[in-house]
Write a structure and sequence with these properties.
With 711 residues, this protein is α+β, with helices and mostly antiparallel strands. It has 26 helices and 24 strands.
């Protein structure tokens, strides 16, 4: 709830000017976040990041009270209503809640309540604990039992009039029997996981934008200017509070919620009365453990003093009630059920295990899959055979903790053995490829098991094709992973060269035409054919990368392109290179700075496998491959091969290599008879000796600095 001691000490030592700058920056960030979340239903930062920024601003304002202005984000709720809706002023302000982020915060909250009320440790004091629904707050006003208006929270004082939209939600009664004459019911509009998945499937089918999570979907659906759109969306409503009343609902929170239920509102069945902070925290962890099975999103548990008379005594702060607090879940962690472990086969034959999960929202994104890395990770071992997760293995049916931060691929962080089903058995990693039946081999020192099927493996074929059309490779406009997969399964393409035959095989005048496929038309088909044609002329490094050779990334492809210059030279070198008997071509390949034996072996073996080589040759016949760009230079080392060894003291090795390449030189990692200059830094060893034996010119770093100055 507060800054850590280290942060508090840091703020205490801060100058007023420094604090003022931070306050202004934080205020601007929070205002932008409020508008994005509350007005546009399109959050730009995570809840955890928002909470962190707000806590920091609160701490700064506490330390420098004169910097706390009336319109600070810490002093108001939400954002002003958006244009397009009429405005409704809340007769009783809709507040936000203070936050607790760990068990200690909850204990302190209870202690604070007792202290404020003058209650001793033994005096009875009860609280309610209920799931905190992650949706959109809504106020419903009834007069004489009839719904007269519905309003969003807005900025807490003024909300948007969404009455017509609220009337379309089946969970919201239009008429109440036995209600107080004046009754304002407050609650949360939300969308279930099942309905969210169906909505996104429908959005995708018609090419519309997908929603990131159920909260965004619910908020966007309720805040439609056309109520018919809202009516078509599967929205739900939980009632959990009230505002204006002409007569009390009950004397306790528990009984008031029961009264709302008797009036016809849906209330949360997980709401529980607790008599101590221990019970509150226990219920929190139980709800957290069951989170993935609820069928809707929650982001914490809300605690409220149960006695409504005590609530009235406790009252409110500027934006939050003293008698309630929200115990938030860790934003980047969630527990869910691992339903299955599936094995995917990648373009290099790697067998990659993937966890299929009961969907759960983690860090603002619905997560249904997580990486399991490799067979050792599943077994609870690291690369060196040591224990991870305390040696706990991962099994189908397990309850697992999922971790996701930023754009990081979700991972399984932990396993709850207490919830492991009795029938769960240890996962046996396959030793054959399920796609083609070939042996899946794990080489010594490799963490990954790989299919040995090569191009006879359908999985490797389609993944290689996806890689071929990826952004960093041929990047053919209109031909993405989904189209490639569809064309492959229909037999239209089996290898990269087939892409360049699509117009001839399925263009104008053919029996089967692309324009007649579902989702295609004449214009889109012609556009794709034109895009393919434009990609026939392509730079050498992109071709090398697009081949999908194991260990060859974009940087390596650029390195190889610059070294060999042309496809003809590159292809000839790969054909001549012999890892078993060495030779000039092999030594030259190994001599490229940044190319090791494993990468070199992968390159050469690709060109020495008959099936893959034939596919490469067929592709090259379709292309006009542009020679690699080489730095234009008239320096005295242009075209020379340079090797750096030892420790350079006046520039980094990376800087020296970049300077040499900018001057038109080739940089090699090993000394050979092709080496023209060896730059020997401090501690130069065997390379200097070999250079001397071969009669290679050896210079020190000062000589290199002089030489490098002549760019």
């Amino acid at each position: 709830m507060s800054e850590t001691p280290d942060h508090a000490a840091e703020i205490a030592q801060m100058s007023r000017d420094g604090a003022k700058t931070q306050v202004e920056t934080l205020s601007a960030q929070l205002e932008r976040a409020n508008l994005a979340y509350h007005q546009r239903d399109a959050p730009e930062i995570s809840d955890a990041e928002y909470d962190r920024l707000k806590r920091r601003l609160q701490a700064l304002e506490a330390a420098f009270p004169d910097l706390a202005v009336a319109d600070s984000p810490t002093q108001h709720v939400g954002a002003a209503p958006a244009d397009g809706f009429s405005k409704l002023r809340h007769e009783q302000r809709m507040m936000s809640l203070g936050n607790a982020f760990d068990d200690e915060d909850v204990t302190e909250f209870v202690k604070g309540i007792r202290k404020y009320l003058g209650l001793g440790p033994e005096d009875p004091l009860s609280f309610t604990a209920e799931p905190k629904i992650d949706g959109l707050s809504l106020s419903l006003r009834y007069k004489n039992g009839v719904l007269v208006y519905a309003a969003t929270r807005g900025d807490g004082e003024v909300g948007e009039n969404v009455t017509a939209n609220a009337r379309t939600i089946s969970d919201i009664p239009s008429v109440l029997e036995g209600a107080p004459q004046e009754l304002e019911v407050r609650g949360e509009v939300y969308m279930s996981h099942e309905d969210f998945a169906a909505l996104n499937a429908a959005q995708e089918a018609r090419g519309a934008k997908l929603f990131a999570n159920p909260r965004n979907a619910a908020a966007g659906s309720l805040r439609q200017l056309d109520a018919q759109i809202t009516a078509a969306r599967p929205l739900r409503f939980f009632a959990y509070a009230w505002g204006v009343l002409s007569a009390p609902l009950a004397q306790t929170q528990t009984d008031a919620i029961a009264r709302l239920s008797s009036l016809g509102f849906i209330t949360n069945p997980l709401t529980k009365r607790c008599r101590s902070s221990v019970e509150m925290i226990r219920h929190y962890h139980q709800i957290e453990a069951d989170r993935a099975t609820l069928g809707y999103d929650i982001d914490g548990v809300v605690y409220k003093v149960d006695d409504l008379g005590l609530q009235q005594r406790l009252g409110f702060r500027s934006t939050t009630p003293r008698w309630a607090i929200a115990h938030k879940f860790p934003a980047e962690l969630a527990w869910t059920k691992l339903e299955a472990i599936e094995i995917q086969v990648g373009r290099t034959g790697a067998l990659s295990p993937v966890a299929r999960l009961t969907p759960v929202t983690v860090g603002g994104v619905v997560v249904s899959n997580a990486t399991l890395h490799n067979e050792d990770y599943i077994a609870g071992r690291d690369a060196n055979g040591g224990d991870i997760r305390g040696g706990k293995d991962i099994r189908e049916g397990d309850w697992v903790q999922v971790y996701r931060a930023g754009d990081v691929i979700p991972k399984v962080a932990d396993v709850d053995l207490s919830r492991r089903p009795p029938e769960a058995v240890a996962f046996v990693f396959p030793t054959t490829c399920w796609k083609c039946g070939s042996d899946a081999i794990r080489e010594e020192g490799d963490a990954v098991r790989r299919c040995s099927g090569g191009l006879i493996c359908p999985a490797q074929q389609v993944e290689k094709l996806k890689h071929f059309v990826s952004r960093a490779a041929f990047d053919i406009d209109g031909l993405g992973a989904k189209q490639v997969e569809a064309f492959y399964h229909d037999g239209w393409i089996k290898e990269p060269a087939d892409i360049f035959h699509l117009k001839k095989e399925y263009g104008p005048g053919q029996i089967r035409q692309l324009k007649n496929r579902e989702g295609w038309g004449e214009k889109s088909a012609d556009k794709l054919f034109d895009a393919i044609e434009s990609c026939r002329h392509i730079p050498l490094p992109k071709v090398i990368f697009a081949l999908g050779i194991r260990h060859v990334g974009e940087q390596t492809a650029t390195l190889l392109g610059r070294h060999y210059g042309s496809w003809t030279a590159f292809e000839a070198a790969m054909t001549k290179a012999d890892p078993q008997n060495g030779g000039e071509a092999w030594e030259d390949l190994l001599g490229i700075d940044g190319v090791g034996a494993v990468l070199a072996q992968s390159l050469v073996s690709t060109f020495h496998q008959d099936a893959e080589r034939a596919a490469i040759d067929r592709l090259v016949k379709e292309l006009d491959i542009e020679d690699a760009e080489r730095p234009a230079s008239t320096s005295e080392i242009s075209g020379l091969t340079i090797v750096f060894t030892g420790t350079l003291e006046k520039m980094t090795r990376s800087e020296a290599k970049a300077r040499a390449e900018a001057m038109g030189a080739k940089v090699s990692g090993s000394v050979s008879k092709k080496t023209d200059i060896l730059v020997a830094g401090r501690g130069a060893g065997s390379k200097a000796t070999k250079a001397a034996d071969l009669g290679v010119r050896v210079i020190d770093e000062d000589d290199w600095i002089t030489l490098a100055g002549h760019v």
